[in-house]
Amino acid sequence: QSITEPYIITAYCPCVKCCGKTDGITASGVKAVEGVTVATDKSIPFGTKIYIDGAGERIVQDRGGAIKGNRIDLYFSDHQSALNFGRQTKQVKILN
Hints:
It contains two helices and six strands, in the order E-H-E-E-E-E-H-E. The protein has 96 residues and is mainly beta. Strands 1-5-2-4-3-6 form a six-stranded mixed β-barrel. The N and C termini lie close together (7 Å).
């Protein structure tokens, strides 16, 4: 698809506060990696590459209970970085 749509982008890390656990293992079974992992709703399959304006290319590897529709959760390796990112609206393109 070459369509770009606005998404609400939030952030999370592997801490208990963000995930309820601390092992960093995603819903797809792989270990989350900063700069790679994002969580989306089930409409976007695991392994899908996406491009987030200002953040670059990421791979859908996780899910989140509050992640519905045009919302993406970016993975950060530490809680402060996730807090610093906050909540932003960005253009997103599904690459495959």
